[in-house]
Design goal:
- Helix 9 packs parallel to helix 10, helix 10 packs parallel to helix 12 and helix 13 packs parallel to helix 15.
- The protein has 3 domains: about 130 residues, Methylthiotransferase, N-terminal domain (Rossmann fold, 3-Layer(aba) Sandwich); about 240 residues, pyruvate-formate lyase- activating enzyme (Alpha-Beta Horseshoe), CATH 3.80.30.20; about 55 residues, OB fold (Dihydrolipoamide Acetyltransferase, E2P) (Beta Barrel).
- It is built from 15 helices and 19 strands.
- With about 475 residues, it is of the alpha/beta class.
Length: about 475
């Protein structure tokens, strides 16, 4: 972890609203990265500027993650390093926002007394106002300000027309928030609330905003992104009827609308749930050539007993049937999976079923996590964390090795072939990097001006995590 340097700075004498520089430190998932951009945009609207330098900032905000204990402790370590800086510059505003803020609330002030502001997962649009309030109170003579905003009422409407986008070829686009499922190990419904889908016209408008400013790839984000639209109201008589329940729009409808955007070349999805795989969704992927033929569809376990304890809402047989829907309409679809090893009660036989299921389904990408009990979840409160850590580590390593072996097989099948690659950036070693329509990473030598274009690459090598090759002769 980088060490935060501290420098003396003259105390601000003017707490005028909308003046100063903001620095945001982001932890966690892609949705947090998107939310941090949203926060920066809201500050710029109010007259603030953003800075990449923490030392030059008048406001430092930590956008946090609560999925694992390690993520929270890492955040608190960073926050703690600001204590000395806050003593030297008492006018500095320090805020903690996002999932950890929503989960811990006032506890953050107890652990880090130099924090001024704690804001939850649906308060991002209010942060400039909240910071102005902190500064106003200080100007009024309050020595210590502790402001908390944890309401889940804010829908974070996506009016971003006046926000410049300079994030390059690939942009993230949150299409929904929250989750309506109740997996026993997961803190997300607690910290992010229940599902709120953004209307289809709103999503398409923001997508066009990104593409007009240079984005070629959009990743649609949601905790269960293929449940998008389930909570939207049914259209009234005379309004457009979509393909979802009671005429509601479904993710397939959204994909078809995004397919029409000129200049958009690739659409990705993170993350899906087997329960929301439908025929209409699968047909939409087949119809829309901009949609990547790779889907993250976490299985979590190959044991029906463990899936029941996790309250995942499906069995391995039902998972197979959902995958069959996808492969019937999109025979070349590639899948990725998350796995939890060492869940309470997981026997050696249960773990072996997970390994067998990983082999059977032939996942291209596998993310393996040791079970980490999270306070506030049903598994934490009702199930003993019974698997020794050394057993979790051993199972983790076995799954990692197996996933790498299968990844090598799937990537290796393309060696000797020419594949179309959308170039997304330049690696640290100077090679270009991009992805095929099947979500496979490919690296190769080439000029930087190819970034943002699609090129043909002759695949010469493969690993468990990607491919390498050379530009095909034109």
């Amino acid at each position: 972890m980088s060490t935060i340097r501290t420098e003396s700075k003259q105390a601000a004498s003017d707490p005028t609203p909308g003046t100063g520089r903001v620095h945001v430190v982001t932890f966690g998932c892609q949705m947090n990265k998107y939310d941090s951009q949203l926060v920066e945009g809201r500050f710029r609207r109010k007259g603030w500027s953003t800075t990449d330098s923490l030392e030059d900032a008048d406001v430092v905000l930590f956008n946090t993650c609560s999925v694992r204990d390690h993520a929270e402790e890492r955040t608190m370590s960073w926050v703690g390093e600001l204590k000395r800086l806050k003593k030297e510059r008492p006018e500095l505003v320090v805020g903690v926002m996002g999932c950890m803020a929503q989960r811990m609330g006032e506890e953050i002030f107890q652990r880090a007394g130099h924090v001024d502001l704690v804001a939850g997962t649906r308060q991002f649009a209010q942060l400039p106002t909240l910071v102005d309030e902190v500064r106003r109170r200080r100007a009024g003579g309050e020595r210590q300000v502790r402001l908390t905003a944890l309401s889940m009422d804010d829908r974070l409407l996506l009016d971003r027309d006046d926000e410049p986008y300079d994030g390059g070829v690939h942009a993230y686009l949150t299409v929904m928030r929250g989750c309506d499922l109740n997996c026993t190990y997961c803190i997300v419904p607690t910290v992010r609330g229940r599902v709120l889908s953004y209307p289809i016209d709103t999503v398409v408008k923001e997508a066009r905003h990104y593409v007009a400013q240079g984005a070629k790839v959009l990743t649609l984000l949601g905790q269960t992104v293929n449940s998008w639209g389930e909570d939207l109201p049914a259209p009234a008589a005379g309004e457009k009827q979509w393909s979802g329940r009671q005429g509601r729009p479904g993710l397939g409808d959204l994909l078809r609308e995004l397919q029409l955007i000129e200049g958009l070349e690739r659409i990705r999805l993170i993350t899906l749930h087997p329960s929301y795989i439908t025929e209409n969704f699968a047909r939409a992927i087949a119809e829309c050539d901009k949609v990547e033929r790779f889907l993250p569809l976490p299985a979590q376990s190959g044991s029906d007993e463990i899936l029941r304890a996790m309250k995942r809402g499906y069995t391995t047989d039902l998972y197979r049937k959902r995958v069959e829907i996808l492969r019937t309409h999109v025979p070349d679809i590639e899948l990725g999976s998350d796995w939890i090893v060492g869940f309470p009660g997981e026997s050696d036989a249960d773990h072996e079923k997970s390994e067998a299921f990983l082999r059977e389904m032939g996942f291209l990408v596998n993310y393996i996590f040791k079970y980490d009990p999270r306070p506030g979840t049903k598994a934490h409160d009702g199930l003993e964390d019974s698997i020794p850590d050394e057993v979790k580590k051993e199972r983790n390593q076995r799954m990692l090795k197996l996933g790498e072996e299968l990844g090598l097989l799937r990537h290796g099948a393309h060696v000797g072939q020419t594949r179309r690659v959308l170039v997304e950036g330049v690696r640290d070693d100077g090679r270009l990097s991009g992805r095929t329509v099947h979500g496979m990473v490919a690296s190769f030598e080439g000029p930087a001006e190819l970034v943002g274009t699609q090129v043909d690459v002759c695949i010469e090598g493969a690993s468990g995590y990607g491919m390498s090759g050379v530009l095909a002769k034109r």
